[in-house]
Design goal:
heterodimer; A: alpha+beta; B: 269 residues; mainly alpha; 11 helices; extended
Chain lengths: 194, 269
């Protein structure tokens, strides 16, 4: 038997076309499947802007007497944000329950945020005091515009939250000391005179 | 009273003139092309009817008496299929008036209830039929479990049935958002947020950070076409509800029924 025949025996025409055919078929369906999956991830979103102008800090009433904080709800419906004015300053809290994304309600007499869906309760710091929520309410960034008004950024919640989480040792319903170092400083907290 | 005796000496009240016309019609190629077997008065003919008819061939050519007992099968699979047909018909009719657009969806649903002729009963048939289908499909599953009808050779049909149950629940879930009311909106917010806890594929799920999964590239993002429930989510729910899922369900049902026919009806305990 010469060399050519031996090669023919190892890689026969039938075997070659068999492998080539199946490879081609799987390549076609595989790439079609991948393209089909990619199709469901839009490149451009037409969602509402993730920043808004919340006005000047002096438009928000400061707490008086024994009050710890005043929760302002003027942006809740349009931006899903509460502006919370404490004696030391102001911060923006995102009105999205960290459990499964419903909108909690503010109850001033009980000094609590309560979620209507599954009953999570938060205090004015956003810490979970009852219910199934796994972590505190998110903070939105506050930047000061040249005219002194506050530019609040709520966008890319998940990404910002993940950034916060990298500093967390464990997932908790209260802010850790490390996190307190983040949320009580700019850009998450705006220091004001009382 | 004049009567006619036919070949089998049975009494016939049909006048010979009409009988001749009938016989002529039955001998035409058109009639024979539609009704191939003739009157099924023998067992082979009866089986031939089932075999050669498009509609009848869903059923086995022969079914044991026990398989026909209401007490045994509850007819739950049949009722589920009937509800699926009802939902398809009423759903197609609802599509003539309903537009899955942010500013129209809720008002179109209200119009269907108060303005469109017979819209109220159509929408209610669709809604209650959907609730009913979830109910009957679960009862069907319970029945199959308790009669042991999932056992060999029917294991694979049980698996197909589980897929059909999941498709039914997904149809129910996608239909929930379409009225674009508070109930559906927050239900779907909660439901799709659960998807974000999927291992590897959801941005809040375990191990996903190793794949670089974030809110704008996880499985929830693909489901609702964005980072929040909005117009994209409404259109996606609509297309899956009206086209994608019913097509998958139909394909699986064809297979499900074919397997029943091939495996035969399960016997009583």
């Amino acid at each position: 038997m010469d060399k050519e025949n031996e090669f023919e025996k190892r890689v026969s025409r039938r075997k070659f076309f068999n492998i080539a055919g199946w490879t081609g078929l799987f390549a076609f369906f595989g790439s079609s499947g991948a393209a089909g999956a990619r199709f469901f991830y839009p490149k451009v979103l037409y969602e509402p802007a993730s920043t808004f102008n919340a006005g000047r800090p002096d438009e928000y009433t400061a707490p008086a007497g024994n009050e710890q904080a005043v929760v302002d709800e003027r942006w809740k419906k349009s931006q899903r944000v509460w502006m919370v004015r404490t004696k030391e300053g102001i911060y923006a809290m995102v009105a999205i329950c960290t459990h499964l994304g419903c909108t909690p309600n503010w109850f001033p007499t009980e000094v609590r945020f309560k979620c209507p869906c599954h009953g999570s309760n938060y205090n004015t710091d956003g810490e979970v005091v009852a219910g199934p929520a796994p972590e505190p309410l998110f903070r939105a960034k506050i930047d000061l515009a040249p005219d002194g008004s506050m530019i609040v950024t709520t966008g890319l919640l998940g990404i910002r939250r993940a950034n916060l989480q990298t500093q967390k040792k464990t997932l908790g319903v209260f802010w850790t000391e490390e996190e307190k170092g983040v949320i009580w400083k700019p850009p998450y907290f705006l220091q004001l005179k009382a | 009273m004049s009567t006619n005796l036919n070949n089998n000496n049975e009494v016939s009240f049909v006048p010979p003139f009409f009988k001749k016309i009938f016989e002529y019609i039955k001998s035409t190629p058109v009639w024979k092309s539609i009704f191939r077997v003739g009157y099924p008065d023998t067992m082979p003919k009866r089986m031939a009817v089932m075999r050669s008819s498009f509609y009848m061939h869903i059923f086995p050519t022969k079914v044991g008496v026990h398989g026909m007992k209401i007490k045994y099968g509850w007819c739950m699979g049949g009722i589920t299929f009937f509800l699926f047909l009802l939902l398809t018909i009423t759903g197609i009719l609802l599509m003539f008036y309903y537009v899955p657009e942010e500013h129209r969806a809720y008002n179109d649903m209200k119009d269907l209830r108060y303005v469109v002729p017979f819209g109220m009963i159509l929408r209610n048939m669709h809604r209650w039929g959907a609730h009913g289908m979830v109910f009957t499909v679960i009862l069907h599953m319970i029945r199959v479990f308790y009669t042991g009808s999932y056992k060999p050779p029917r294991q694979f049909n049980w698996t197909v049935g589980v897929l059909l149950l999941l498709i039914t629940l997904m149809l129910s879930f996608t239909g929930y958002l379409l009225p674009w009311d508070q109930l559906g909106f927050w239900a779907v917010t909660v439901g799709t947020n659960m998807a974000s806890a999927t291992p590897l594929l959801g941005y809040e799920g375990p191990f996903s950070k190793y794949l670089g999964i974030q809110i704008d590239n996880d499985i929830r993002f693909a489901l609702i076409g964005g980072t929040r429930i909005g117009p994209n989510a409404l259109v996606r729910a609509y297309v899956w509800h009206c086209v994608g899922l019913p097509l998958i369900a139909t394909a699986l049902m064809i297979f499900h029924f074919w397997r029943i026919r091939k495996d035969g009806f399960s016997g009583p305990m």
